Amino acid sequence: MADAISVSGPITGTDLTLSFETGKLAGQADGAVVARIGDTVVLVAATANRKVREGQDFFPLTVDVEERMYAAGKIPGSFFRREGRATDQATLTARLIDRPLRPSFPDGFRNEVHVVATVLAADQANPHDVLAINAASAALMISGIPFDGPIGAVRLAYSTDGVWLAHPTYDLGDASTFELVVAGRALSEDRDAEVAIMMVEAGGTEKAWEFYAAGAPKVTEEVIAGGLEAAKAWIRESIALQRQLVATAGAKQTIPYDLFVDYASEIYERVVAVGADAIAKANAITAKTQRNDALSAAADEILALLGEEFPEREREVRAAVRSFTKALVRRRIVEDGVRIDGRSPNEIRPLSAEVGVLPAVHGSGLFQRGDTQVLNITTLGMPRMNQLLDTVSPDETKRYIHHYNFPPYSTGETGFMRGPKRREIGHGLLAERALLPVIPSEDEFPYTLRLVSEVLSSNGSTSMASVCASTLSLMDAGVPIKAPVGGIAMGLVYAEGKYTTLTDILGAEDAFGDMDFKVAGTREFVTALQLDTKIDGLPAEVLAQALRQARDARETILDVIAQAIAEPAADVKPNAPKIVSFEIPLDKIGEIIGPKGKVINALQQETGTDIAVDDDGTVGRVTIGAKESSAVDEARRRIQLILEPPSAEVGRVYAGKVVNITKFGAFVNLLPGRDGLLHISRMGGGKRVERVEDVVELGQPVNVIVDDIDPQGKISLSLVDENGQRIGGREQPGETPSEEAGPPSAGRRASFEDEFAAELARDFGDLGPGEVGTGGGERQSRGPRRRGPRR
After folding, report:
1. Largest CB tally within 10 Å, which of 38, 124, 156, 330?
2. 448-457 and 400-405: which strand pairing?
């Protein structure tokens, strides 16, 4: 086995160490690096195909993240007890790795590259996603695959004191208001070289609103700009350590490769010569469908003119047409300040918002911005409908869920629909993260929330339209969100030494531009952000201008949302479940569930409710749900009677029900949480009874009178008739025993109490004080709950 070569260095401002190791594992990969922070360990292997697939006209980079459950000391929860398809968290991590790596390969490189990150150890404290980005860059740096790196990455958490903290643990991230993942590369090999920001993924935390209410500084556009600048110091540290690894281990010889061009220069020149006017005229059309049709017709016309001159080179001609179209669009924006659809750089397309679009659902909202249209539907459910997470992170459940669907018809195309793709998962999680800080806590609103965004028409930034539609849908459903959230996508064109920031970009502007910058937030603070750039370096003032334009656009969008629905509906829809949740003492859980679930099952059957009992190790929680509020109220009333049961009175007659039969008597339920013993000696009306079943049966209603309540609260009963008269020869309470009867036998009384206690022990187990007549039935206990999956 080969010896490992490793380098390590401290992470400034923390007690952590970042290390890279190579040479020991995965020796047949072109490059393999094991990275470690704390006890979290990730292996990243990079390989490249030496040949280019025939007809390949794009760069085929694939990034996979393999979360092995053994890394966290867990066994997969699936039927086969084996990892299956990638989790949403793994998909998001793969996209985080892909986004800064992809632009760092040479233009025209077509060899297939596969990067695989395997989580080998997860210490449940230090996240693995940012570690994997750094490890992927390091693996490519020593692989011999052409790569313009290194790429450094860091996660920052904004504390409640207003300080950016590097590489926070899960707990530290939960205790912050905002988290920021930043990746970039140095523009030179100098240790203090300027860092070009290439990728940003950020969002508010679940408790952000709570922290803001307590006085924590809000995360504004200015705070984010400061965080991006602060991140550069830790990015430099990672880059320096990767270069140290390359210097120590050495890089492999660069693999042989060719750079391909989409078209020859002479074809481009001829396309411009014969088709410039037609392409310019087509680009002047502001409507998307008509513009695309005109551009397609112009391309066909150019192809017909050049077909004989360049036979069998149709692909190159069409690529040249696209390239000239891109140059024309960019020049028009920079020089004339006019965009594809005729708007100015900071102009938003027409906006509209509606709520209550669909019947029968719990909440719905329709948001449209130009040709982009998204319908969002909210569904409310019981807490037991929380998504169970089977990942290597500490998160076990997820209460607020957002799914995003992007069918082919939304762009006027045909295609296959076979489950969500990576893009759909990523966009859904971005929109989910944007609303997370304003979702009410489970204590305030004890529902599971599932939101689904259906993209009905797409022409730019459907993810941000999903944010707006989610806000509408949630408020329509009566979810008391803390504040409405709006989102907008920004773009950037850099040409002729000039930066032009674009508000509300179209799909074509996204493809032809140099930056895709999505920002979501309330009127007071930012809740989510995503940025990808294609250029080296983004001046601070340019970024600040983009953030200012985004804030102005967000204000406009929030005004439109407020016109549709100013505040959340006062209550959930009539067809939505009515749910209440309240805390109970831990030692009362057994009483509510009852022996083998008898009590809780009876409550559910008799009230028509769905009741869940859970605990976090310190306090219990009961959640009751039903279609009708009256059913919920009745179930809650009965549970409150169990928690604080009314006391039985000696000498009072009760209409009870036989709930258990033993050899020496029957237990009768008098009141919620109160059972008494009807001894066999008091059933026969003065005659001997051989079997209890000869007199009463399980579930039979009976009228009984309370004869006695001992100091331990045990109740002894006698049967009475419909007139309340005792059946049998014993005196009524308060009467003086006859002389013939004599004093009651102490021996008989002791025997009765012994039988009573023994039967309780057999039927209900070892119960604590106040648990007479109930049992410690089954219940769920998952330990302390954490928030949803990490972003």
Report:
1. 156
2. parallel
- Tokens linked to 119: 């989580």
Burial class (CB in 10 A: 0-12, 13-18, 19+), 179: buried
Instruction: HSE, CB side, 13 Å, CA atoms: give it for residue 292.
Output: 8
Angle value at C-alpha 190, between 186 and 192, nearest 5 degrees: 75
Place of tokens 């470690």: 36
Angle at 609 between CA 608 and CA 613, to 5 degrees: 145
Residue 418: CA atoms inside 13 Å, Cβ hemisphere, count?
2
DSSP-derived 3-state class of residue 369:
strand
Report which of 62, 58, 112, 101 is spatially closest to residue 260, judged by C-alpha positions: 58
- Average pLDDT of the chain, as a whole number: 88
Hunting for tokens 């050899």 — which residue is that?
663
Q: What is the DSSP string of 7-33?
A: EEEEPTTSS-EEEEEESSS-TTSSEEE
Would you say 618 and 781 are in contact if contact means Cβ atoms under 8 Å apart? no
Paired residues of 530 in beta bridges: 201, 518
pTM equals: 0.83
Query: What's the confidence (pLDDT) of residue 754?
Result: 53
Structure tokens belonging to residue 340: 């594809």
Sequence-separated (6 or more) residues with CB below 8 Å from residue 319: 57, 262, 263
Residue-wise pLDDT tens digits, 168-220: 999 999 999 999 999 999 988 888 888 999 999 999 999 999 999 999 999 99
| Residue 788's pLDDT band (cuts 50, 70, 90) | very low
Residue 37: CB atoms within 10 Å: 23
* CA–CA distances in Å: residue 514 to residues 93, 235, 478: 23, 22, 40
The count of C-alpha atoms lying within 13 angstroms of the C-alpha of 726, restricted to the half-sphere facing its C-beta, is 17
Asked whether the beta carbons of 223 and 544 are under 8 A apart, the reply is: no
Considering only CA atoms, which of 482, 216, 386, 396 is closest in space to residue 787?
A: 396
Are residues 451 and 473 in contact, defined by beta-carbon separation less than 8 angstroms?
yes
245, 4 contact by CB (below 8 A): no
Gap between the Cα atoms of 65 and 131, Å rounded: 12
Return d(Cα 136, Cα 96) in angstroms, integer: 11
Phi-psi region at 683: left, alpha or beta (left = phi > 0; alpha = psi -120 to 50): alpha
User: What is the rounded CA–CA span in Å between residue 702 and residue 683?
Assistant: 11
Per the DSSP assignment, residues forming a β-bridge with 113 are 48, 61
Token readout for 488 is 């907008």
C-alpha 238/C-alpha 179 separation (Å) is: 19
Three-state SS sequence of 643-693: HCCCCCCCCCEEEEEEEEECCCEEEEEEECCEEEEEEHHHCCCCCCCCCHH
User: Is the CB of residue 493 less than 8 Å from the CB of residue 465?
Assistant: no
